[in-house]
């Protein structure tokens, strides 16, 4: 069970990290700390940076969702079960991808469906 506690701690830690990143990005995009430059060229560059930041923020939000989902799975006691086929997910896989909810086989199938 200590493994599960370690994974849970890892997930919680990662969630905090991502949440503070999202907060920092939101502050940045809303120009909380510095007003928009008055120079047009500068503004264009700033807008581009904002788009990159927003994409980063969205990716972080997605990951937060995955982590929350994984934490719920731990609470329910279904963390080690694949959500697609119900088989046990390999522990080595879970250690690498702590927020995954698919076993290697189902993940590969999902991956190949996305490609074709
Ligand atoms: Zn599966």
Descriptive overview:
By secondary structure, the protein is mainly alpha-helical. Helix content is 72%, strand content 0%. Helix 1 (2-29) runs antiparallel to helix 2. It is elongated, with a radius of gyration of 19 Å. Residues 82, 84-85, 87, 102-103, 105-106 line the site of zinc ion.
Shape: elongated
Q: What's the count of strands?
A: 0
Q: What is the helix fraction of residues, given as a range?
A: over 70%
- Helical run tally: 4
Strand-residue proportion: under 5%
> What small-molecule ligands were found?
zinc ion
The span between the termini is 40 Å
Main sheet: strands, sense, barrel: none
In short:
This protein has 116 residues and is an all-alpha fold.
Features:
single chain, 116 residues, mainly alpha, 4 helices, binds zinc ion
Itemize the secondary structure elements and their pairings.
Layout: H1 2-29, H2 40-76, H3 91-96, H4 104-115
Helix pairs in contact: 1-2
The structure holds zinc ion.
The site of zinc ion has 8 residues, from helix 4.
């Amino acid at each position: 069970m200590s493994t599960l506690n370690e994974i849970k701690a890892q997930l919680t830690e990662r969630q905090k990290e991502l949440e503070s990143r999202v907060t920092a990005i939101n502050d940045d995009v809303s120009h909380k700390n510095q007003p928009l430059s008055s120079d047009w060229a500068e503004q264009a560059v700033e807008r581009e940076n904002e788009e990159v930041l927003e994409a980063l923020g969205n990716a972080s939000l997605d990951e937060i969702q995955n982590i929350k989902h994984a934490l719920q799975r731990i609470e329910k006691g279904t963390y080690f079960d694949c959500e697609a086929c119900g088989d046990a997910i390999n522990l080595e896989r879970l250690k690498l991808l702590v927020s995954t909810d698919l076993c290697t086989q189902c993940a590969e199938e999902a991956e190949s469906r996305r490609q074709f």
